[in-house]
Amino acid sequence: MPDASRAITEVPFAAGEREMLLGYLQRQRDLVLWKVDGLSDHDAHRVGTTTGLTIHGVLDHLTDVERSWIRRWFAGRRGLHIGGIDAGHIQPPLELPHARFKDLVAAYVEESRRCDDIVAEHDLGDLEVNGGHTLRWILHHLIEETSRHVGHLDLLRELADGRTGEAPGSP
To answer: To pair with 39 at 20 to 30 A between CA atoms, which of 48, 60, 69, 102?
Structure first.
């Protein structure tokens, strides 16, 4: 089982909408990191599905998802590297044969921090720069997307080294 001492955000039972949304998003991010904690680069890269889904690819995809939704589409930042995501079309995570796993983990943590900085400057009802989605909708989407991929990581981790389990504090 991954390191049980890794902190997993506890979402309050009674909180305002913003605190609850950000708490659930952070909890899912924490679960991503918990699911891959202690995994070797070799195992993260070698295990995959018949369609090519790997732990490397899922982590890179989640980084791109946050970067695209918050920094690119919501905040309007241009010139960002977003692999497999363009013009609203999301492709399956790509195989990254030369990426070191610890670098992908660090990139995910750093991108989440950058996105949190932008979110902190806006109200939930603020619209993305092109007037499409509200920040509220985007945060709900990020929770859904990240949660789905936590399930993928759970299965891929079991295939990689047999480790399974629920995170500390899970109901």
So the answer is: 69
CB 83 within 8 A of CB 58: no
Give yes or no for a contact between 35 and 3, defined as CB atoms under 8 angstroms apart.
no
**CA dist list (Å): 123 to 13, 26, 163:** 22, 18, 40
Distance CA 11, CA 47 (A): 32
Q: Please tell me which residue, 2 or 161, carries the higher pLDDT value.
A: 161
Partners of 54 in beta bridges: 48
Give the other-Cβ count within 10 Å of 154's Cβ.
Answer: 15
The answer to whether the Cα torsion of 130, 114, 54, 7 is positive or negative is: negative
Q: Which residue type sits at 79?
A: G
Identify which has the larger pLDDT, 168 or 76. Answer: 76
Cα distance between residue 117 and residue 91, in whole Å: 27
- Please report the DSSP string for 99-127 in residue order: --HHHHHHHHHHHHHHHHHHHHTS-TTPB
